[in-house]
Input
Amino acid sequence: MVAVLGALALSVSLAACAAVPTVVEKLTTATSTAGLTDADGYIPNGDSLTLTSDKPAVTKLDPELLAALRAADRAAEDERGIPITITDGWRSERYQNVLFERAVQNYGSEEEASKWAKRGTDSAHVSGHAVDIATADAMDFLNRFGNRWGVCQVYANEIWHFELLTSPGGTCPPMAADGRG
Output
């Protein structure tokens, strides 16, 4: 009887181990950027786009936000010699969900992940109302002068994330601590 129970326990343990690669494979697939393309607004890690790019990450931005950013870019170039480029702009809902699932993996819970990423259509990126700025110089320029075009940093923990939040020349609203609002 003990031998039968031991064999059964070993069989169940081995079966559970065999399932692990499938679970890991599904988790990796859910958070992989491998299937994402320009059509999703995907910009590969380490790359950035100018605000005149013909890629969907730029062309699908809200027209008012894009116009404000282009005006700020001209001023940044003229006044400081700083180009404004982006590492993220418009994103598909599919891409945003990949980023949220990756944040859950990295931070260990949905609550902690929500400080850094939002689900699908909850993200201003999906509606084309947000950009992530590529360089520290451009972030600094927009933090100091972005309100001239209505462009403001949104979250205290994301120095790269900007949206159109005030009228040109207005005052930017206080930043939220993080993505939870």
